[in-house]
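stage 2 :: seqdesign
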């Protein structure tokens, strides 16, 4: 199963610009990226307005956490938003915002986001449970994330996202410690994208190269999505075998 998963390698799920670059080589000007992220540029609002200065997003808006995210992945998503290859189906704002940035500005923002190493603060899972929401059980999701379900054609998440979702290099996003609601939502949109293009339904996501995430999500049940999201959201993105970033405190 793992061999099958890597066979799709060159067009990997989240492969993005500059993935072959050295891990220490910035893809843009971090200083300019910081200015845009924190204060905005011209008519472009500050990224921090929704994603917070520390990159952990805001609870009331439920924006995704960007801290510890991979620069090349951020760049690809910004470019896809600008080109309408990915629809912002949560806040309905990213497409217009990113279009106002130049390609170099997008590179600079991605480079700066990659420097955000905010300590892990816990997930939104406990609060959701306290509010009476039905959520997945992390201990069940751990098995699927680490071993997959070969009989159903579902590879282990860590095959590409590494231990605790910390990202296996610059080709794949860091997903450990991400919001439960965001992880669940994205898996559901990939699953919808397996049968419906985003041009027909804004709730579908289809900007993964070779449809790799869509093929996997299409095989996942609602329970699979719930438990995997639950495990990943409480996982500290440790970096065993991945020198990209220091371990979180």
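stage 2 :: out
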């Amino acid at each position: 199963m793992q061999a099958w998963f890597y066979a799709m390698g060159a067009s990997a799920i989240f492969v993005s610009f500059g993935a072959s670059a050295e891990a220490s080589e910035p893809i843009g000007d971090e200083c300019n990226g910081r200015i845009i992220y924190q204060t905005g540029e011209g008519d472009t609002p500050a990224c921090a307005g929704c994603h917070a200065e520390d990159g952990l997003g805001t609870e009331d808006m439920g924006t995704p956490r960007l801290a510890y995210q991979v620069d090349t992945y951020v760049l690809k998503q910004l470019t896809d938003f600008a080109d309408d290859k990915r629809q912002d189906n949560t806040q309905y704002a990213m497409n217009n915002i990113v279009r106002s940035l130049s390609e170099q500005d997008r590179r600079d923002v991605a480079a700066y986001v990659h420097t955000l190493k905010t300590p892990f603060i816990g997930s939104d899972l406990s609060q959701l449970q306290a509010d009476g929401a039905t959520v997945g059980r992390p201990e069940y999701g751990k098995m699927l994330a680490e071993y997959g379900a070969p009989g159903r054609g579902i590879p282990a998440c860590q095959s590409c996202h590494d231990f605790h979702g910390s990202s296996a290099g610059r080709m794949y996003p860091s997903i450990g410690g991400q919001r439960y609601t965001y992880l669940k939502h994205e898996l559901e949109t990939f699953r919808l994208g397996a049968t419906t293009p985003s041009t027909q339904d804004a709730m579908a996501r289809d900007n993964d190269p070779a449809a790799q995430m869509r093929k996997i999500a299409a095989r996942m049940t609602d329970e699979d999505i719930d438990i995997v999201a639950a495990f990943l959201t409480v996982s500290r993105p440790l970096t065993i075998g991945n020198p990209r970033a220091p371990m979180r405190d």
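stage 3 :: structure notes
- Residues 2-233 form a domain with the Cytochrome Bc1 Complex; Chain D, domain 2 fold (CATH 1.10.760.10).
- The chain has one domain: 2-233.
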